[in-house]
Amino acid sequence: MIKPEDVKYHDRDPSIRTWVETMPILFNIPEEQICGIAYVLTRPNLGAAISSIAIAKGICRNVHEIDFLDSQMHLTAPKDLSDFTLENGLSVKATKPPRDFHFTYEHALGSCRFDLNFRGLHQPFDIHDPEENVLMAKSSTSNPTDARFGDPWKNGHFELKGHITGTLELRGKKYKVDCYDGTDHSWGPRAEVSARAESYLSVAFGEDFGMQLSVPLKIERGRVSSDPARFGFVVESGKIYGIVEATVETPERDNMIGMRQIIRAIDVRGQEHVLEGTAIAGYPYSTFNPAYVMFQSLYRYEYRGRIGYGQTGDIFGTDYIADRMSRHARH
Known about the structure:
Layout: E1 19-29, E2 34-43, E3 48-57, E4 68-76, E5 83-85, E6 90-96, E7 100-106, E8 112-120, E9 125-126, E10 156-170, E11 173-189, E12 197-204, E13 209-220, E14 223-226, E15 231-236, E16 239-254, E17 257-267, E18 272-285, E19 292-303, E20 306-317, H1 318-325
Antiparallel strand pairs: 1-2, 1-11, 2-3, 3-4, 5-6, 6-7, 7-8, 8-10, 9-10, 10-11, 12-13, 12-20, 13-14, 13-15, 15-16, 16-17, 17-18, 18-19, 19-20
């Protein structure tokens, strides 16, 4: 179970050079076909951090079409992960840990700024708690042998859906932000050997329903597909219910960016959830971490007569994707 102190740095051996703690926030303006992310990865034992802010409107097939990118390396690691400001202009404060946060950003050249409040909708989902993550009993989520999982969550990871409100100003144009999406926090040693292939799906239909999934990906003969989910949950009226079975299909892609999506999931109550999504924004995102490329999509979902939205990130290690898609591909 996640506790308020889990938004701070965790106890660690100071000699572990690869220790990492991360935090992103996903935010959207669906009526404008805009999706955004702010990401922080800090290595406290090294005293260094990287951070990236990305915002895209519509489908951006190439990097030069993305509306805003600010990715910086070798920033000073925060002393307190629950309340900090980085040199790139991003500030994060846990206002009511572990659920509520305040994110602000001011670009050094004045091209972008935002002020966002994140109000969590439920107790954060702990992937290492078998009472919450019921799929843990079927596969070793905490220490998977499949290289596609990488090592980001060996020590800890939580997921949280929330209501995000505030303002965004992008190249002189001002927007109101009022959406539902997610944040998370990972901690532990991370080698970043670029062998990962995994998809993260965040779906929200307002205050009373949302879903989160993690799905292994694979590329065979140039075609991307997925295996059954490794963990996930639905949140309904503030309560979380673990996923016992889920599959995700992405029958249409454009330059690797997911354009259509079909989710089928069953939760611990035996309730089946079938969602169909169509991308309204998306972009290739290779600057949040030099070890990976992520193809990010903002989907418009239909579910039981309702409309919702959420971002999916299809993450591939640079070596994994090159071994299957480059001119020197071996698989």
